[in-house]
Specification:
Structural class: mainly alpha
Radius of gyration: 34 Å
Number of helices: 48
Strand order of the largest sheet: 2-3-4-1-5
Number of strands: 8
Low-confidence stretches: 248-253, 679-687, 794-804
Distance between the termini: 65 Å
Helix content: 55-70%
Length: 867
């Protein structure tokens, strides 16, 4: 979808060096070392000539220069990165279009975008310099975080320049310590006496004496804008020496004094023009004409530019300008003091002009600034359908700026507010919003024809809330009601509700209804919605044992994502995590590990896939005895899921089981686990809550209760068609019940073979291998071949000599200590060897024994008589 307001190409033009610019060779010499650094920081208060210095330097640097002039509206991360991409369009080439589509996804991953951006920039044959002017207007933490990552990972030949009034809140000390940053401060930018003389006397031809120059330089403390303002006033001063003398002792009031002097030096119509147009962030002739109800503004702008009156051209055609920010602030101050009643009407005229041009962002900005909140509300309602889905922050900012009473008069805007605030999970805020929606709908509406649509949207929000608390029956009922009532011209609401309904069907063991609903979404989805819908449909198929059908869907989703930005598309996290589970179910741990990492990398901001990936990575690392990595993943999983009820209990219990540490965490899990027939709560990172509860009971020594729970899980999973879950319960029961094991395993192998579901067998290591070998004569050819993938060919003898590569003496020592339960660190201490050596012996052991983890290695060694 397009942005609410088009990007302004004028912000991408680097200001041209002015003819009166003073050469500053000392600063140029310091800046010459930029190719060996990552960042140049030009940080000083307003009016110290940062933009002039940087534009003069960049225009002569041997680099492809990309320029962005920032303003307050660029605090929306999507808009910010759109401008950066457009500025870098030449070195990025066709990557820009794909990257822009990423930014319009529902929850764009800026970290992933940066990774792709860095990779593309590393291919540039020429040095690239990105200049972000007025970076101090950026206050959004996500932008700061992403910029810190971007700067940290810059490829060789890429350089970032920040011109700012205040230091950005990231990693400056580290860059400084590493010698990766050039920095210029106010003390560096202040004009020395020689530079002041060059500007005032040589460039401006004022002919001031040495004493006057010294006095003026001291009074302004080398402040460049102060000197410029003084020069403009001096051009019209009858006694220049007297002017300097009177000016020199009033530092506290310099700005107000100079603005008054500059204004008084121009005819009344120019003063009027400057004051009235000061409300604008950007100026053009037609816009100023509309604001002033006059003609000839373009000529005035050109004259002001020629007079060097702090007017900066924003394009090469002299169509758009902006005032120097400090100068504009002072003009606005004077306008508020001299003609306060005109401010509101000026903003209203500006808003109307921007609306006619289709620039909704600026139209809304001026409506809000002029306190025309009714007009702003109408504009927000008109702009919302055109917003790119990555511009939720912009929409939220607009809605939050409206007075509460105005929102309460607009159920459409209250519904939008609830929609954009829903992902926050703030129950109290959402409850208050829902109450306000109900009250608004209870009153007469300006257009009663919209009541049914509003009511349907409200039902949709209630359906989302029901699924968040795990109430599948209510979710299904409300989603079906909303979907039937929502009009066709509400795609945002309709697709969201349909996906919510499909997931409720899935969790409620209605796979056919879920698949049918996913297909309805795919029939009308755009590319981004299709990526999500295909991934969720494939996950549904996988949960019900249809891995062969799920795989091509996951692959199709990833191909579609690749065409729209690749990994930087946040929605690919659903496909990567789903594909990882598929590999896991078929016994390909290495591939699963890789895919979980992919899902984690691009899933930040999306709770469910991110939490799922972290949890599974922790489990896999624990399984392979990489405890440090496992602990890091447990911690990240806790951090991601901290807002969810009971997630800590779940994660602590899973950690305890993975690291052979039973106790209170397992007991709390058993107490909290829902019965199997209740389905799986939405937010748990695994689909085996009840299986985990059964394992917890067994680990606590409650064999009878554990087996009974396993039997319940198996029965319910088979009735629901959840074959992978049923197999895990069946095989675990077989490992605990020797007398029933042959029948259970025989049935499990037959069920697992068509979809190559190996995980349930591999999870139990090699302890079941002798029993599995006895089944060969009772199975058909297909099942026997599947069996051989688990235990090797039937002709293989289960004896020590079957090892192709016998164990060394040191490997036997390490194996014995592993069997005793010692950690790698403890083994290293006992054998007085390096930890890396222990890990190397462990890797060799696993390879020789055909095992993937410690449990399997010990079981196979015992079966071979090596322990």
């Amino acid at each position: 979808m397009p942005l609410a307001s088009p990007l302004l190409s004028t912000k991408l033009f680097m200001p041209r060096p002015q003819p009166r610019t003073v050469a500053r060779p000392q600063l140029a010499e310091r800046l010459a070392s930029w190719p060996t650094r990552k960042l140049t920081l030009v940080s000083a208060p307003p009016g110290f000539g940062k933009t002039t210095l940087v534009s003069t330097w960049a225009s002569s640097a041997n680099a492809e220069t990309a320029w962005v002039s920032l303003d307050g509206d660029d605090n929306d991360p999507t808009r910010f990165w759109m401008y950066v991409l457009r500025a870098l369009s030449k070195p990025l080439g066709d990557f820009v279009m794909a990257a822009e589509e990423i930014l319009n996804s529902p929850a764009p991953s800026y970290k992933s975008l940066i990774a792709a951006l860095i990779n593309r920039l590393s291919e540039s044959p020429t040095p690239v310099m990105l200049v972000l002017d007025d970076y101090h207007v950026i206050t959004a933490p996500p932008i700061h975080d992403a910029m810190a990552l971007f700067i940290d990972r810059l490829p060789e030949g890429m350089h970032v320049v920040l011109a700012t009034r205040s230091d950005p809140p990231f990693m400056l000390a580290r860059l400084r310590a590493q010698g990766q940053m050039l920095e210029l401060r106010a003390a560096d930018l202040r004009f020395e006496a020689e530079e002041a003389q060059a500007y005032l006397n040589e460039r401006m031809a004022l002919g001031l004496s040495a004493n006057a120059l010294s006095s003026l330089t001291q009074a302004t403390e080398g402040w460049v804008t102060g000197l410029q303002l003084a020069a403009l006033s001096l051009q019209h001063a009858p006694d220049r020496e007297a002017f300097v003398s009177a000016f020199a002792g009033t530092n506290r009031y310099i700005v107000d004094y100079l603005v008054e002097e500059v204004l008084h030096a121009h005819p009344p119509h120019v003063q009027h023009f400057l004051l009235k147009t000061s409300i604008l962030e950007r100026l053009s002739g037609p816009l100023c004409d509309a604001l002033l109800d006059s003609h000839g503004s373009q000529q005035i702008l050109e004259e002001l530019e020629q007079a060097n009156l702090f007017l900066v051209p924003l394009d090469g055609e002299r169509r758009w300008y902006r005032y120097h920010h400090l100068f504009a602030d002072m003009l606005r101050h004077l306008l508020e003091r001299q003609a306060p009643a005109s401010v509101s009407s000026l903003h209203e005229k500006a808003s109307s002009w921007f609306e006619r041009q289709g620039h909704y962002s600026e139209a809304i900005h001026h409506a809000l600034e002029g306190q025309h909140d009714a007009r702003a509300a109408d504009l927000i309602a008109a702009a919302a359908p055109t917003l790119g889905r990555g511009e939720i922050a912009t929409l939220l900012g607009w809605l939050s700026a409206l007075p509460a009473f105005r929102l309460d008069q607009r159920p459409d805007l209250l519904l939008l507010m609830a929609w954009v605030r829903f992902p926050s999970g703030n129950h109290a805020e959402l409850t208050s919003l829902f109450r306000r929606v109900e009250q608004a709908l209870a009153r007469p509406l300006e257009d009663e024809r919209k009541r049914d649509a509003y009511a349907a949207q409200f039902v949709a929000l209630q359906a989302f809330t029901a699924r968040a608390r795990g109430d599948l029956a209510t979710t299904t009922r409300l989603s079906e009601t909303a979907l039937a009532a929502l009009p066709p011209n509400e795609p945002m609401w309709r697709i969201g509700v349909a996906l919510n309904l499909a997931t409720a069907y899935q969790h409620g063991d209605r796979p056919q209804d879920a698949l049918r609903t996913f297909d309805l979404v795919l029939a009308e989805a755009d590319a981004h919605d299709a990526i999500l819908a295909m991934s969720l449909k494939a996950t549904c198929l996988q949960e019900f044992g249809k891995l062969g059908e799920a795989l091509p869907l996951f692959e199709a989703a990833l191909r579609l994502a690749e065409a729209h930005g690749g990994r930087a598309n946040t929605l690919t996290s659903y496909a990567w995590v789903g594909l990882a589970h598929l590999h896991l179910k078929q016994g390909r741990d290495d591939e699963a590990l890789r895919c979980f990492h992919e899902g984690r990398a691009c899933g930040e901001g999306l709770l469910e896939p991110h939490l799922n990936a972290c949890t599974q990575l922790a489990r896999l690392y624990a399984l392979h005895d990489e405890r440090e990595k496992a602990e890091r993943m447990w911690q990240e999983a806790h951090q991601v899921g901290q807002a969810l009820p009971n997630v800590g209990i779940y994660l602590n219990a899973l950690r305890a089981l993975c690291l052979d540490d039973s106790g209170p965490a397992l007991e709390r899990l058993v107490a909290m686990a829902p019965p199997p027939e209740a389905g799986t709560p939405r937010h748990w990172p695994l689909q085996d809550w009840n299986l985990l509860a059964a394992k917890a009971l067994l680990a606590l020594g409650e064999r009878e209760r554990g087996l009974a729970r396993l039997e319940e899980v198996e029965r319910h999973a088979q009735e629901a068609g959840r074959l992978p879950l049923a197999l895990q319960a069946m095989v675990l029961r077989a490992s605990m019940l020797p007398e029933e094991a042959p029948a259970l395993l025989s049935r499990a192998v037959v069920l697992a073979e068509p979809e190559n579901l190996r995980q349930a067998f591999l999870d139990e290591g090699t302890s079941l291998q002798p029993l599995l070998r006895t089944l060969a004569t009772t199975l058909d050819d297909a099942a026997t071949r599947f069996l051989e993938t688990l235990i090797g060919p039937q002709s293989e003898a289960l004896a020590p000599e079957s090892l192709l590569d016998p164990l060394s003496e040191r490997e036997r020592e390490v194996l014995a200590l592993i069997a005793e339960g010692l950690t790698n660190q403890a083994i290293a201490q006992q054998l007085v060897i390096e930890l890396s050596t222990v890990k190397r012996h462990g890797t060799n052991l696993f390879g020789k024994l055909g095992a993937t983890n410690r449990t399997q290695a010990v079981a196979r060694a015992r079966a071979l008589g090596l322990l």
